[in-house]
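Quick one: structure tokens for this chain, please?
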Amino acid sequence: MAVAISVEELYGIFEATPASQNILLVGNHGIGKSRIVEDYFTSRGMKVTALFLGQMSDPGDLIGLPRLNEETGKTDFMPPYWFPTDGVPIVLFLDELNRARPEMLQTVMDLVLNRKLAGRKLPEGSRIISAVNAGEQYQVGELDPALVSRFNIYTLRPTVQDWLTWAKRSELDERVIKFISTHPDKLDSRFDPSADSLDKSPDRRAWERVSNVLKGVKSPEPVHAKLVAGIIGALVASSLFDSFKESTVTGKDVVEKYPEVAGSVEAFSIESFPMLNDEILGYIDSLSAHKKKFTDQYAANLLSYLNWVKDQRRDAYAYFINAFMSGKYKKALAAITKSTPELIVEFNQFVINI
């Protein structure tokens, strides 16, 4: 079995792998293999050309169509639409490799070994990356061992945190991000061989579609629930819409006006506090960027919140301390340490007594 890696580890592999070596990513559908490849290399100024081999029915789709060269009297091939003719290296992403017809795979053989198609060479520095779905739930074919040997192979298993980091950066709907933060088991479906093939279940690609549906909708209506159920399945959609009934107190609210929202915070389920704690620290961390200061009132509100959490939700209190000391929120750490040094003593004592 191929070695399993996270998205962060894949970034490191992209960085360390010579361009002359090919990479094959194995993973379930909907985890974002193509998106990860495109985002990484596009951010580094390289063009990513994706070819869906499972949709190609003839080698001519890949190598171009033959024509008679009237000067030589011989047949050559017109370059296909995607082939780079400007000499600039590209990332050629061959998706659905194990769905390709056998005659297509024979063409791929020469491409991945010699970087050539019909005698035409890819620009120096070009990369070839491929992706496959693997498992008995997929209608795919076996790959020739000779072809497989030409790839470095990795099983991509993105973590929940990988997705949350991407979702925040991509500004997905906050309610979706919060739901996955508190229900990480709902991010990806688990294959059930007894399930009907048309039963819907969630995957990372589906959650992006859910976000697109809900973004800008302040008060979702029954039609939205039906719509979302068609994307992630009825059970998970029901759980998502139930979570909307919980008060939407933010980290900013706790810092700026905790006495006003204390009652709502006290009604939170324990699963909601990790996200809230991260929001609190994230908001304090961002104050300087918004030309604000961590005022005495903000510090007092934070102390009131933490005193309640310490007494009533010790697990959430421990999570706050862990996040605070992780080094992720450096500006928040500095601001809290300066304004409420007694908290640091209390945090250290709490850790010692665990």
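The CA atoms of residues 5 and 156 lie 5 Å apart.
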